[in-house]
Amino acid sequence: MITILCGESVINNFIYVDKFVKGQKCNTSNKFRVFGGKGLNLAKFLSGLNEKVCLIGFKAGENGDFIDKEITNNNVLSLLIEVEGNTKENTIIIDNDNKTEFISMGPKLKKEDIILFEDVFEEVIEKTDLLICSGDIMDGLENTFYNKYIGRANERNIYTIIDSSNFYLETVIKIFPKFVFIDEKALSDLNSTMISTYDDIVENSRMLISRGVESVLVTTKKFELLYISKKDIYKIDDNYKSKKSLDLYNELLLAGYINGIINKKSISESLKIAITYAKSNFEYVI
Questions:
Q1: How far, CA to CA in Å, does 103 sit from each of 9, 57, 87?
Q2: Which of 8, 132, 214, 274 could form a disulfide with 138 if both were Cys (CB 3.0 to 4.6 A apart)?
Q3: How many angstroms separate the CA atoms of 143 and 137, rounded?
Q4: 3-state helix, strand, coil in the chain (%, to 5)
Q5: Does the global pTM surpass 0.85?
């Protein structure tokens, strides 16, 4: 079973308008409501590949119930812990190529929430083959939140993946996740270096490997997907340039790659699965 630890759940309300002008009435052309965040999207995409997926983390209020229902409808086992308040909700107004975001505050966790989560994690981890820590983390959690659970998975020889922002990656790397999924800019920022060539990407990835990571999967500005380990380098071109949301596209890539590896495909075959799955499904998930 794949277990995804989602540090923060969120709901996104998208509103499309003909022209957004502050202080004036705007005509809407479309609007819809979806759950968001790396962990939730990755769980949905992996389930779409017929993987058995369990989602753990936190939910609150009506927004939390909405997420629970939607993720369950996508055949994901939801073991989100109920906490006080209401899950974070963002409103995104899109005017042609312009985007204005209104971000609400989410719930703040209490000590007893963390204790309850600990119990759920210990029960789930015994049935887990792969642990993925994905996305940002909510208020009330320490920046090192993911470290503890990656460490516990490592103790059980469970394969671990980190798919998060640099703010958390810097500390998590010290716990030696087996696999890091990262884009070129984040890799550059994480190592405080300039990346301008293919060799720079390889060198920066191996800087992470020298710190204990087994392998790194990088999405590049030139729309390439690179797998780098201590001994191997694999590259595949991705010429699918119509990407309205790189975050969503990248989660599709990661889901496809994981599906390949779990089904004992080679690295090169898994990269091809990643590209194919992302291209085939992207237009249907935005």
A1: 13, 20, 12
A2: 8
A3: 8
A4: 40, 30, 30
A5: yes
- Residue corresponding to tokens 């499904």: 281
Amino acid identity of residue 213, one-letter, is V
Beta strands 10-17; 159-163: pairing state: unpaired
Both tokens assigned to 48: 């779409």
Structure tokens at 266: 């080679």
Q: How far apart are CA 143 and CA 169, in angstroms?
A: 10
SS3 label, residue 138: coil
Give yes or no for residue 176 having a pLDDT over 90.
no
| CA 99/CA 204 separation, integer angstroms | 32
Higher-confidence residue of 26 and 155: namely: 155
CB within 8 A of 143, min separation 6: which ones? 137, 167, 168, 171
**Amino acid (one-letter) located at 18:** D
Range with the poorest average pLDDT among 16-25, 142-151, 258-267: 16-25
What is the torsional sign of CA 274, 277, 281, 285? negative
Tokens of 234: 């694999």
Determine the 3-state secondary structure of 242 from DSSP: coil
